Amino acid sequence: MAVPSLPKVKLCQDIEFTYTDSGAPDTDNYMTFILVHGHTYHAGVFQKLGPLAKSSSVRIICVNRREYTGSTPHTPEELGVYQAGNDAERTTLMNGEGVNLALCIESIIYEQKLGHVALVGWSLGNTFTLAVMASIPSLPDDSKKRLQKSIKTFILWDPPSHALGIEDPPNPYVPLYDMTILDDTGVSTALARGQEFGKWVESYFSHPAFTEKEKKGSHNEKDLDRKIHGNPSRPPTFYDLPFPELLAMVDFSVGDKCDTILTEPTFNHVVEGIVDKALFEPKTREAWGHPKVAYMWGEANPWNVPWAAWNIQERVKNAQGNAPITFHAIDGANHFVMWDDEKKALGVLIQCTKA
């Protein structure tokens, strides 16, 4: 499939990032949301937000991470570290990913003359936006100043526990790791697992933790469904989308290269370090000028999204005011609320900047 013509920024290391842009609204004072996508689904997954942006006096810019839709692939050496590096090598790699994405965002801010910016990670994209946050000591001084001046809010949107280095509860399940999923020839392939993952992550789950009155607020992992037995009244988001249209917003080839390994237990310690530095080290918040940090998540997501939210809520509570985060639970929303109810999604994003 031909790569669509998208605006791009080029860093001095010959690394390019492509992005989509809703354009500036008809007002001088507006908020720009810069969104970073997750596993498999690239910037195209946010396309329904764009037409709503100008009437809401906001701007929506969606960056394609490396390997996706015209952005620069990783080198063989970098992919080797993803797949088999030790913790020190992977920590260095992820700091570099954070620096590169930060410089990309700085370039977009400069070229588009943006004012106030909210940086948003969605799904696995949270690992990378938190790496941006954690990378500030490694940025050039001029870049720090420009980013500090513009980025006023960081938003975590539907991070699964695997994107935050959080240990699984008993009996976890994610189709990406299920080697019993076979293709039409009876072989377990990344493509077959990726397609089954798509059905799973697009579904609406009816977790007892949110649907049964007596269990609300319990934060008990036993009240989270692992597999789809959920809400038959709400089919998966893209169940009736023509396959060519789905292909315009996904890339099934990236997972096995670098994305899936990032969510596996061997990477947990590295990712946990990013989360600790970004969210729970006061020096990081201070270096960014004490921005707002918000966390939005849908209650009909797969189990690993509420599991992550509960974990971070508990850590914020234990930090006793030293790591403020506002939480915004979205009743009835699945992982693709930006597609099924784009007005609600944009409304919660805007609310996160005001809380």
From TrEMBL:
Hydrolase is among the record's keywords: yes
Keyword hit for Hydrolase: yes
Domain of life: Eukaryota
Protein's name according to its UniProt entry: Alpha/Beta hydrolase protein
Pfam families in alphabetical order: Abhydrolase_6 (PF12697)
Region feature (Disordered): 212-231
GO molecular function: hydrolase activity
Record's keyword terms, sorted: Hydrolase
Classification via InterPro entries: AB_hydrolase_1, AB_hydrolase_fold
Listed Basic and acidic residues bias regions: 212-228
Domain AB hydrolase-1: 34-341
